[in-house]
């Protein structure tokens, strides 16, 4: 399996975990010391448990239908940077579904066991 195929699979795993509200599965996709930098200008979130809690907050706030789409990847032996788009939705107080999304960049690092884990994740 190529690294790009692996990254695509990781995106699918993230979306499946998010959309099934499984914050432990989301956190498992990140390195222990990973950093998530949310938009707009949110405070950086560092570490697996904090990342699980952060995404849990988004899920509790009603974010649904998360979807990551990779547009480009730069890959070395131990690092991979993915750029692309993200999309999601929420049901407003009026009952109307609101779609939103933007750009995303995720940096993955190959671990000693060969697994790729996210080390930095930023979006706008």
UniProtKB/TrEMBL annotation:
Q: Which domain of life is it from?
A: Bacteria
Annotated Pfam families: SnoaL_2
Q: Which residues form the SnoaL-like domain?
A: 13-117
Gene3D superfamilies in alphabetical order: 3.10.450.50
Q: Which InterPro entries match?
A: NTF2-like_dom_sf, SnoaL-like
Q: What is this protein called?
A: SnoaL-like domain-containing protein
Question: Can you name the source organism?
Answer: Methylophilus rhizosphaerae
């Amino acid at each position: 399996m190529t690294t790009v195929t692996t990254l695509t699979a990781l995106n699918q795993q993230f979306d499946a975990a998010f959309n099934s509200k499984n914050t432990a599965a989301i956190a498992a996709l990140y390195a222990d010391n990973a950093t998530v930098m949310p938009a707009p200008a949110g405070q950086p979130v560092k570490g697996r448990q904090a990342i699980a809690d952060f995404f849990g907050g988004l899920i509790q706030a009603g974010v649904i239908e998360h979807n990551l789409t990779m547009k480009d990847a730069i890959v070395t032996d131990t690092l991979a940077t993915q750029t692309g788009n993200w999309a999601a939705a929420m049901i407003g107080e009026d009952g109307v579904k609101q779609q939103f999304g933007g750009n995303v960049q995720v940096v993955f690092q190959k671990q000693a066991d060969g697994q790729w884990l996210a080390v930095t994740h930023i979006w706008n």
